Amino acid sequence: MEKNQKEKRKAFTGIKSSGLVMLACFALAVLIYYFILGNPDNFVNGDPKNHPLEGNFLGLIYKGGIIVPIIQTLLLTVMALSVERYFAIRTAYGKGNLTKFVQNINTALSAGNIAGAKEICAKQQGSVGNVVASALVKYEQVEQDKDLSKEQQILAIQKEIEEATALELPMLSQNLPIIATIVTLGTLMGLLGTVIGMIKSFASLAGAGGTDSIALSAGISEALINTAFGIATGALAVISYNYYTSKIDSITYCIDEVGFSIVGTFAASHK
What sign does the dihedral 92-96-100-101 (CA atoms) show? Predict the structure, then answer.
């Protein structure tokens, strides 16, 4: 049983080297910036130093400056880690509906069918199943240990549930802190790019010694690209973070519910 649980845990540990993911995303962002956004076909006279062609969105993004690849790196990182968390948490959910799984476990426990409850856990193949299976093994062990008092037996089962939960949950929230950080960092990078763009725009106008409305409007629109890009990155990150956090909360709730049922069943049947 213990060997099978370890094998199941290995199935959804996810990507541990998030730093390598960010490096790969940065390399991809740089390639996109120079070869797609900076494609000469996007600019007047085929020169990236000139203004973008009218209505050319890719060239306009390129004019956002060096901050653009940084924001792209954050956006690609959120996308990559979101996909990674999807598969990890989907595996942790196991097979079937969690609510139905909890109901089946409670029914088996109420009938005193520990063996049937263990079979249900084996079929579920998820984090909740792993925790419950560990608790049921401890349930049978303490039941046979006549040297322990009832209170000690209950504490032993509770401790097993806590330890099994501590092994499962950290893997589910892995990489979510990075996504949470990008929520703020993406917006800040967008604002930084905007400020830099505005400084360059007004500096060029001051150097020209006059007010060129066309140059000013072009510079402002280019600068605001960074704001839009940064806000979009932050929005995607916060949606991803909240979505997966709610999924993890659902798993935690199910573990707690079944854990209470196991302890309650043991206390009721061993008076």
Answer: negative
pTM of the model as a whole? 0.84
Sequence-ordered list of residues with C-beta below 8 angstroms from that of 94, at least 6 positions apart, any chain:
101, 124, 125, 126, 127, 128, 129
Strand partners, 52: 43
Measured CA to CA, the distance from residue 109 to residue 94 in angstroms comes to 20
Give residue 211's region: left, alpha or beta (phi > 0; psi -120 to 50): beta
The CA angle 17-90-95, to the nearest 5 degrees, is 140
Closest to 62 in 3D by CA, of 42, 92, 86: 42
List the alpha helices (DSSP H) in the chain.
Answer: 2-10, 18-32, 57-62, 67-93, 98-110, 114-124, 127-144, 150-172, 176-208, 213-269
Residue range 202-256, pLDDT digits in tens: 776 766 555 556 566 666 777 788 899 999 999 999 999 999 999 999 999 988 8
